[in-house]
Amino acid sequence: MDTESRLQQTIQDMVDDHRGILAADESLPTMEKRFKPIGVPSTEETRRAWRSLLVTTPGLGEYISGIILFEETLEQKTEDGRPIPEAAWAQRIVPGVKVDKGKGPLSGAPGDLITRGLDGLTERLQRYAGLGARFAKWREVYPVTRHNPTLLGRKANAEVLARYAAVCQEQGLVPIVEPEVLMDGDHDTERCAEVTEQVLHEVFHALHLHKVRFEYMLLKPNMVLPGKDCRRAEPEEVAEWTLKVLKRVVPAAVPSINFLSGGQGPEEATANLDAINRLRGNAPWQLSISYGRALQQPALHAWLGKEENREKAQQELLKRARLNSLARKGEYDPSME
Ligand code: 5MM
Fold this sequence. Notes:
The protein starts with a helix and ends in a 10-residue tail after the last helix. The longest helix is centred in the middle third of the chain and has 21 residues. The mean pLDDT is 98. It has one domain: TIM Barrel (Alpha-Beta Barrel). The relative contact order is 0.14. The strands form two sheets. It has an eight-stranded parallel sheet with strand order 8-7-6-3-2-1-10-9. Strands 4-5 form a two-stranded antiparallel sheet. With 337 residues, it is α/β, with parallel strands linked by helices. Helix 6 packs across helix 7, helix 9 packs antiparallel against helix 10 and helix 9 runs parallel beside helix 11. The protein binds 2-O-methyl-1,6-di-O-phosphono-D-mannitol (5MM).
């Protein structure tokens, strides 16, 4: 298949009106943080067992169309000996991989961050594709203060995201472009909206400059929310602000917007997605999820690293996936919890 047809096919397999993406691409330090509260050490084997449990959840493919894996998972196997990417696709869940190499300070822009990993990206993508990955993900992170992100921070991060996305498309992998405006801080919703609009504007400008085809990418943004130390916003408020910002800056050619949960609780993230879809009006894109914590957390706490809890954990995952699928149609109600 030529590159264009591969991109087209992947978008077709991942984008519909009722499913979302499961983010299971936590790096080693993040996985340690997730396992610590349940008393499970983060080893190659515990990470394999957890991710194999997720991917083999019976019926998951009804609600989930893509899974973002961590590099090591591409080469790991399920209990019955199948490569994890193969087990995902057996449920019609497209396997993909996180390809960024983590973040660090951005010189010349105190308080801003920049993500590493462009060196050798072409070769890595070729290797990941050989292991079954059909899409990739790269996250840039934007802390919010009175001064951040700076103009330099916004421009530098956008440039990196666009260079990554262009290489992915060249190699026939659909890029998920993830610019995350963090929830940390006491800023209000208006400030989050201002920053998110500036960030996305810069990102799409850079994507255009680097000739990224919007039809063959997915956007994974934050919702527009007040900072964690400010207050909690009602779903309708989140939905109105989020849609207002997205309509200003995201081209209609982008097939799907898949939100990250970013530290929202599982129920909060579902209620917010539901409100967004109820108020979407004539928005041109699918409005879906690419949640990590908001899909995995209840399952992780049911599992506790014990084989005998496997089924219970899978039921918890399936429940969140199903409720988010209802939220995609604006048909979720908190009483369903
Ligand atoms: C923002 O994090 C992404 C979505 O997860 P949440 O819904 O929990 O916010 C997630 O894909 C994230 O990029 C990965 O967990 C990898 O993070 P690290 O920092 O470990 O690379």
